Amino acid sequence: MQPSLTIATRAARAAGRLILRYFERVDQLQIQAKTRNDFVSEVDRAAEDAIIQELKSKYPNHAFLAEESGPRGRSDFEWIIDPLDGTTNYLHGFPQFSVSIALRVRGRLECGLVYDPLREEMFTAERGGGAQLNDRRIRVANLTGLEGALIGTGFPFRDQRHIDTYLSMFRTILQNTAGIRRPGSAALDLAYVACGRTDGFWELGLAEWDMAAGALLVSEAGGRVSDLAGGDRFFVTGNIIGGNLKVHRALLQALQPHLSEVLSA
Ligand code: IPD
Ligand code: CA
Ligand code: CA
């Protein structure tokens, strides 16, 4: 494992310990609404501080793009951090959330991890080096299309403009697959595609920190991620599709007709 990924796993475990320490008493946490349906707690901030502190101690000149503190510094080396992905779950005591950390070097994802502290599952990927779950190699599932597929997704709870487009997509996927899951942590949803627990995933309106590590996991596990036009602008549009090559193509074909004119791909 390259040194930067080793440091990142250390940072993620530190954040995970903090997240678990507060999990039993979430009702006592200080919570603020960032926008409608979008909450942040003192745990999100403390976990983010712990991650940045750990990374900075080793890489003082790197830049950071973290959900709660925004962009910091300028460098060819940029860490993209979601300290707690699945905050709504967490605040309800619903046991599905993760820590997501990725390193982008000159615009290209170099390594990344998604860590589930409850299950002690550490998903890691390095560009050209494959993807692992707790050090064991993982691969995407080998289904050949949507029939029989289990597809992960996320609901557009924040941006109401996406609802109609999303619901027509939802109907199509529901009618053509074995089922849909909405676990509530996009980073972990992508990690589940990478290890074959789901066959594919799509969501609209995500942020870079929700997708960065998970996107690398899927491609290093032999799958494909793209925006809804089949291109690689998902960091720009926030809309992402992932799966093995065949499921990805089938999802793209099924979802594209529903793209409304107001929604960029
Ligand atoms: C959210 C989760 C959720 C997804 C949302 C994200 P947060 O991240 O990934 O699954 O549907 O769009 O914002 O706010 O819990 O870090
Ligand atoms: Ca997130
Ligand atoms: Ca978050």
Would you identify the CATH H-level superfamily of the largest domain? Fructose-1,6-Bisphosphatase, subunit A, domain 1
CATH topology of the largest domain: Fructose-1,6-Bisphosphatase, Chain A, domain 1
Question: How are the strands of the largest sheet arranged?
Answer: 4-3-5-6-7-8-9-10
Report the radius of gyration as a whole number of Å: 17 Å
Structural class: alpha+beta
- How many DSSP H or I helices? 8
At CATH's second level, what is the architecture of the largest domain? 2-Layer Sandwich
Number of domains: 2
Present as ligands are: D-MYO-inositol-1-phosphate, calcium ion
Query: Judging from the principal axes of the Cα atoms, what is the shape?
Result: globular
Please report which band the strand proportion falls in: under 5%, 5-15%, 15-25%, 25-35%, 35-45% or over 45%: 25-35%
Distance between the first and last residues' Cα: 35 Å
Walkthrough of the structure:
The protein is built from eight helices and 15 strands. It has 265 residues and is of the alpha+beta class. The strands form three sheets. The chain has an eight-stranded mixed beta sheet with strand order 4-3-5-6-7-8-9-10, with helices on both faces. It has a five-stranded mixed beta sheet with strand order 12-11-13-15-14, sandwiched between helices. A two-stranded antiparallel ribbon has the order 1-2. Helix 1 (3-23) runs antiparallel to helix 2 and helix 5 runs parallel beside helix 6. The chain is globular. The chain starts with a helix and ends in a 10-residue tail after the last helix.
